[in-house]
Amino acid sequence: MTTRSWNLARVLRLATLSSGALIFLGPYVWMVSTAMKPREEIFSSSLALIPDRWAAVENFSKVFTRVPMLQLLMNGAIVCAVILVVQVLVALPCAYALAKLRFPGARLMISGIMLGLLVPIHATALPIYVALSGAGVLNTYFALAAPFLISVFAIFLFLQFFRAMPDDLINAARLDGMSEFGIVLRVIVPNAWPAITAFSIFSVVAHWNDLFWPQIVVTETAMAPPPLGLIFFRAAEAGDDYGALMAATVVVTMPLLAAFLLAQRRFIEGITLTGLKG
Amino acid sequence: MDSIALPAGTSSAGALARRSEALAGWRLAGPAVALLSMLILLPTLGVVALSLTDFELGYDGVRFVGLDNYLELLEDRTFLISLANTLTYTLIVTPLSVFLGLGAALLIEAEVRGRALFRAIYFLPVVSLLVAMATVWQYLLHPTIGPVNALLRLVGIDGPNWLGGSDTVLMSLALIGVWQAVGFNMVLFLAGLTAIPRELYAAAEVDRAATAWDRFWLVTWPMLGPTTLFVVTISVINAVKVFETVSTMTQGGPNRASEVLLWTIYQEGFVYLRVGYASAMTVVFLAILMVLMVLQYRALDRRIHYT
Question: A25, exposed or middle or buried, with CB in 10 Å at 0-12, 13-18, 19+?
Fold first, then answer.
């Protein structure tokens, strides 16, 4: 192989990667640019990225005054936090018991979990909706979190992780007179951080971005998480006010994007744990 | 006497220990079992049961109607269009996102510089709020003020009404779906590539594969087989579940041209509240998904054996 052909291959490679990157970044660039532009410049459909007149303050202030944007972000954060905490609290002890204790029914439970992995929220949504509607708790945080309080995926993941953990560690703790619950809390959890972190990222990304379930149980803007709030905002206010709309998309996309850029490796690990969305 | 009492004593102590272990096991797994049955297993049975009734939310009286809902589905034009559209969407998104994901992974793997940067850029759409990015795409693809058509006008092409025309809407949605999925597939392929032993390439070079192209077909492609199978099944499953972009941008329109399964189920069940009928659709959807997921587990199994 000559140096020249190596160079040519490399130039082609970098050119392809870079033009691909431009296409992938394009929407983000336009999102930010349009969020800075006043209405008339957007409608002139010029391709300039830098606005002649800056309208960022105007656009962003619409986002925070016309919809309770802070409330939306708060809703999203609360719901994601509740879901994550309950999922982990329920899954950790269960996975430990299935991995390290022998008791009747354990096998049946594992089959139930494997079966649960096959069922997405879309399949169980109707009966759960009927039940929540019957109980009169639509438009609440509880309704938003309810179907996700159990994550079979979390149990499955922790189960794999715990099976690989040495028994000696646990036996030593038992000899020290620790209860099984104490073992989970003081031996298992500290050793399971990598799995917990990866799962947390997976869970938060899935539920922060989810639209399907919130769109079913929430009809009031005050209870909406960011994706649904964005849809309400567009319907009520910003039909073709693209400046304000893009400003809103910047605001709701930013938290996760910033977290991703800060902890890329962990994010990629967490999200590719499974191929499934939520 | 002692020699008899001793084993009896230990065995009853053993039984006691076993019982306390079982008790601890049940106590630790109990909450999960309760939630699993309440939130997943029972609702799944529930949706099958509801699909055999004419239940509508807000109306009293539920009648058992047997398979009537399913028979109605066979003649429901909207549902059939929806199935066909979902299939078309999946057939566009899967090959493109798998192929581009593999391409990006190969290029990034071969390049020494900027690996992390490119990986991050291609992965951005995966972590971005899809509803927000769909809103951005809707603006980008706007027929008159959208930058995409403005760019096309620069080179003298009159761009179509991407999301507003019934001929182009599904393709536009699919391209956005590809944009969203490539980074994910790329990362899976990158992981698959790192697992290929370097010696194989050296051996291939000694053997007969002189060019990078030969080496790809001799080593990379066969070694990536399990990963590829896994990526393909995942892409199909995710494509079948398309909902956010449709709900945000087109709502099934124009003229049902972007009607897809989850959107149809959502409309029927949660907007028109025809729960029984929507349940039948859900059962069909679940059946499709289950077949795909069983295939995926097979692929996953094989991937684990390989690495």
Answer: middle
